[in-house]
Design goal:
Elements: E1 3-11, E2 14-20, E3 27-30, H1 36-46, E4 55-59, H2 72-78, E5 83-86, H3 90-95, E6 103-106, E7 110-112, E8 116-123, E9 130-137, E10 140-145, H4 153-158, E11 164-168, H5 173-178, H6 183-190, H7 198-208, E12 216-220, H8 229-239, E13 247-249, E14 259-261, H9 264-268
Parallel strand pairs: 3-4, 4-5, 5-6, 10-11, 11-12, 12-13
Antiparallel strand pairs: 1-2, 1-14, 2-3, 7-8, 8-9, 9-10
Helix pairs in contact: 7-8
């Protein structure tokens, strides 16, 4: 048995990742920045075993509009599922249309039914931060981190021993500095509470893949203005050649392949 992960789309136009932990077809979303209609279509396009009506919960990293689409408010009124996020984001979630009956604020690790242990990790992003998540089920360990200004020691500790790492690789610093973006925006993005550069991302991945357990390395949230997939691929293949065959670079509004994730020791056995 294995878990399966499909990034349904990742960019400033919208972010959503579908994860199943067993063969039931029930799945969770990490972020809901794509509309319900787009999530439904992307699941079909990816050939996922999960179907839209088997959504069991939504995990929100934070409430920026590319991570929470307002169209989910009506969907959740019709077909409620839990919306799980750190308590620091609860008030904003209600302001952004999350139905209060669906809201499940959390302060620390918890168990998701009988299928997975969940550990939220606060990471720096803008004023109130974002949330990285670690999901541990019987046969896989999965880490998901996006929209973080820098990689903290807590995140590195929490993500030890993963089988799959999804991490932001937002911008190329040279392209960012040469872009026509206003200075205040560049400062926000590169100031330690914005987004990860390619260099910061590859350094974090180097540390986290050193144990040799990671089977899939997925790069999230590439800037369409200040990054290029070929720049990212060349950098990661140069710095982490052992992970070149396992590298997945996400695209806007386009699902990745369906990634099967299981512990390396189980796979070898």
């Amino acid at each position: 048995m294995s878990a399966s992960v499909c990034v349904l789309g990742s960019s400033s136009r919208g972010n959503a990742t579908a994860i199943t932990f067993d063969n039931s077809g029930r799945f969770i979303l990490v972020d809901a920045g794509l509309t319900p209609r787009r999530v439904r279509a992307a699941l079909v396009e990816a050939g996922a075993s999960a179907h839209f009506h088997t959504l069991r919960a939504i995990f929100l990293t934070h409430l920026d509009r590319d991570h929470w689409s307002l169209s989910w408010a009506k969907q959740l009124q019709r077909a409620p599922v839990p919306v799980i996020l750190r308590r620091a984001h609860a008030a904003q979630a209600i302001e952004m249309g999350v139905p209060p009956a669906c809201l499940r604020p959390i302060d620390g690790p918890f168990r998701l039914g009988e299928t997975a242990e969940v550990r939220p990790i606060a990471v720096p992003h803008d004023t109130i931060g974002s949330t990285a998540f670690r999901f541990d089920c019987d046969h896989a360990h999965i880490g998901h981190a996006t929209d973080l200004g820098h990689v903290t020691d807590e995140l590195l500790e929490a993500f030890a021993g993963l089988d799959m790492l999804s991490i932001e690789s937002n911008y190329d610093e040279a392209l960012q500095r040469r872009s026509p973006r206003p200075a205040f925006l560049k400062d926000r993005i590169m100031g330690g509470r914005g987004h990860l550069s390619n260099e910061q991302s590859v350094e974090a991945a180097r540390l986290l893949t050193a144990g040799g357990t990671i089977r899939h390395l997925v790069l999230l949230h590439l800037s369409q203005e200040c990054n290029r997939p070929e720049i990212v691929r060349d950098l990661f293949c140069e710095r982490l050649p052992a992970m070149a065959a396992s590298l997945v670079i996400t695209r806007p509004m386009q699902p990745t392949a369906l990634l099967q994730v299981r512990r390396r020791e189980a796979a070898v056995a």
